[in-house]
Design a protein that fits this description.
Layout (H helix, E strand, L loop, with lengths): L7 H23 L7 H14 L3 E2 L17 E4 L2 E3 L14 E10 L2 E10 L5 H19 L7 H14 L3 E2 L5 E3 L6 E5 L16 E4 L2 E3 L5 E3 L6 E3 L5 E3 L2 E5 L4 E5 L1
Antiparallel strand pairs: 1-4, 2-4, 3-12, 4-5, 6-10, 7-8, 7-9, 9-14, 10-13, 11-12, 14-15
The protein binds 2-amino-4-trifluoromethylsulfanyl-butyric acid and cobalt (II) ion (CO).
The site of cobalt (II) ion has 5 residues, from loops.
Length: 254
């Protein structure tokens, strides 16, 4: 199908979906305190979503052969990199970090975003990991602009992660986004500057670096979704949906 360019009206719909994503993540983040279960976070997301007349893009999502995703939100604690499934058995504790990842459809368009937040006071290395992951995302967004190339984004992310000595997960990628959650192009977190597809105004992409305090290797648990670091090291993930503009990138969902 190729990369779909969005017009102004379509970008406006994506921005509205992005507003819902931000509101849902804000409500979920506010509940990220010791003692909360991730099932409770999922209920909060469902409630906020229903109030705003949007639907989760994750619930029932079923990429080739995998069982349908069974929750509204992804909640990924500590060594879980992405796609953690909310559960009554997962209770947040002081010192944990949790990735909260959410996308919704509104007016036929999708926006996707994630953040990793601290539960109470966390260790200095964990704090640094969160800061580095956010900085990687910010650098990738800054690398966007008309005429820049996809490889510039991966190069910006991998250079910053590498300089800090962090592991960078390569097995999961960012993606184009629009009428569907996953569109072309794939948006890798590694790359060579000056290579890859050229970005054009009206392209909309989700950029999502995943860093670890250990290696890059990950595996998927028997539940078919939960992605964990192979070495058990802490991992962090953050994601924005952005639109390429005439001048750079416009964040539609954060
Ligand atoms: N942000 C992730 C992605 O773009 C979330 C997908 S989670 C799922 O792939 F639950 F929908 F699978
Ligand atoms: Co995504």
């Amino acid at each position: 199908m190729g990369i779909v360019i969005k017009n102004t009206a379509e970008l406006e719909k994506m921005r509205q979906a992005g507003e819902v994503v931000r509101a849902v993540l804000d409500a979920v983040e506010a509940a990220c305190v010791p003692g909360t279960t991730t099932a409770e976070l999922d209920r909060i997301a469902a409630r906020e979503l229903a109030r705003r007349g949007a639907v989760s893009a994750y619930t029932g999502y079923r990429p080739g052969g995998v069982r349908a995703y069974p929750a509204v939100l992804c909640t990924s604690i500590n060594h879980v990199v992405v796609h953690g499934i909310p559960s009554r058995k997962h209770v947040l504790r002081e010192g944990d970090i949790i990735g909260i990842d959410f996308a919704c459809y509104k007016h036929g368009f999708c926006a996707d975003a994630a953040r990793t937040v601290a539960i109470g006071i966390i260790s200095a290395p964990a704090r640094d990991l969160l800061a580095a992951t956010r900085a990687c995302l910010a650098r990738a967004v800054s690398a966007c602009g008309p005429g820049s190339r996809l490889g510039d984004l991966g190069a910006a992310i991998s250079a910053h992660a590498g300089a800090g000595g962090y592991g960078l997960v390569r097995d999961f990628l960012g993606h184009g986004i629009g009428r569907r959650m996953h569109e072309e192009p794939a948006v890798p977190n590694v790359g060579t500057a000056g290579t890859g597809r050229r970005l054009k105004p009206g392209m909309t992409i989700a950029i999502e670096p995943m860093l670890t305090l250990g290696g890059s290797a990950v595996r998927i648990l028997d539940d078919q979704w939960t992605v964990v670091t192979d070495d058990g090291a802490l991992a962090a993930h953050c994601e924005h949906t952005v639109a390429i503009t005439d001048h750079g990138a416009d964040v539609l969902a954060a």
